[in-house]
Amino acid sequence: MKTELKKSKNSIINTFACHDMLSKGEIVVKTGFSPALVSTMMNELENEGVVYKTHFGSSSGGRRPMMYRLGDDLFHCAAYKITTGGISLSIINIHGDILASATYIEKIDDESSLSFSFEIVTQKIKKEEAEKFALVKAVAITLPGIMDNGNTTVSLSVPLCLKSFSFDHLVRKTFGKELPIKLFKDSDSQILAEYRYGTEKAENMAYVFVDDGIGFSMIQNGRLLTSDKCSMELGHTVISIDGEMCRCGRRGCAATILGGRPAARRYADRKNGAVDPQILTYSSVIENANNGEDVAKSVMEEQEKILSILVINVINLFAPSVVVIGGAISKYIGLSEMIQEKVDNLSLNNSTDRAKVSVSHLDMSFSLRSMAGELCKECFFTN
Asked: Over 67-88, what HEC string results?
């Protein structure tokens, strides 16, 4: 009998996996349980602190239903974003609310600098938000590179100079205990954000990220497309056999001509050395182009053409119905319209099934919340 009651409670809890708030009537419909059983279980769950009343919902003619929500402290996730410029950490609850955040700005270019920065930002949250930190039950980490899906190892990260790096020891050391860990390459966390919170979303969608590097991710049939030790490195697809040497050790990768560093070099060259490409940012080149500066416009026109080629290749390979462009390049005015024109003319999709190109408008917090949501499904609702 106790086992059956526990199963009933778990079924009721799992109805909240895709809904922030529900009424008893909605739970009856979703579970198929009787109103009496749902009422009994909900009263028990409320007494246990698993659910709580929020407000009266809207009525369709009868009494207004009481709305329920899962307890705020049932599941907390520590979500990290690691870049070449530092680490950000947020503590996020079961509803996707960011409860605390900290950032440590430091150049990260090897295992040592990553480990040091990871510990610094974690200890900062632990000291300032000890109560929230103590409730963390899982760790999500996003960073550029190829992840070994199914474990906690980064197979290769060219930007961060990592190879076969595991986060197990680092997390155990900083948290003082074993915790579930899930790694996301940077574009994976961003496409999950677009799928959950974006204005353009679809069951089959692609995300292309262009900033200091190039990222690419796919959602197919509503699920993130992953494969062990294969992160679909669009930036390291060779598009010019005799091209420049890439940081990965090969020639002619897309990343050698598209992104922040190539754009800065081209801009500096056309300015005849008047600016230092080492300190020039991608955002500055894009801003100058948006303001009508001829040199910057010529550089960004080239960047758009190269990006269009990559987007068309993605469409021809995966046939997404939506392609979202993210990163600094998304701030280039008119980008989606320019790429859309080329997609309509050059992709293999027929006239009734053309992919729609849009740009991202979401900030980093949405990717962190999306990662926490994925871990919540795996670590809380599944169990």
From this structure: EEEECCCCCEEEEEEEECCEEE
Angle at 194 between CA 193 and CA 196, to 5 degrees: 65
Tokens of 351: 């006239």
- Provide the token pair at 357: 């190109």
| Whole-angstrom distance, CA of residue 349 vs CA of residue 345 | 9
Q: What is the predicted pLDDT for the residue at 351?
A: 46
Amino acid at 244: E
The confidence score (pLDDT) of residue 298 equals: 96
Distance CA 225, CA 206 (A): 10
Looking at this protein, which amino acid is placed at residue 89?
L
Q: Which residues contact 346 (CB under 8 A, 6 or more apart)?
A: 308, 312
Mean of all residue pLDDT scores within the chain: 90
Q: What's phi and psi for 273, nearest 5 deg?
A: 80, 10
| Burial of 131 per CB tally in 10 Å (0-12, 13-18, 19+) | exposed
Q: Rounded to the nearest 5°, which phi and psi values hold at 206?
A: -120, 150
The pLDDT tens digits of the residues spanning 220-271 come to 998 888 876 566 788 888 888 888 888 777 888 888 899 999 999 999 999 8
Distance CA 77, CA 182 (A): 11
The reported pTM is 0.85
For residue 341, which phi and psi values (nearest 5 degrees)?
Answer: -60, -45
Q: How far apart are CA 24 and CA 243, in angstroms?
A: 63
Q: What is the pLDDT of residue 308?
A: 95
| Cα dihedral: 88, 94, 98, 103 (round 10) | -10
- What does the alpha-carbon distance between residue 326 and residue 207 come to, in Å, rounded to a whole number? 7
Cα–Cα dist 144/159, whole Å? 7
> Which portions of the chain are predicted below pLDDT 50?
351-352
Beta strands 98-105 and 136-143, pairing class:
unpaired
pLDDT on residue 118 = 97
Q: Measured between alpha carbons, how far is 305 from 284 in angstroms, rounded to an integer?
A: 19
Helix pair 35-47, 24-31: axis angle to 10 deg: 120
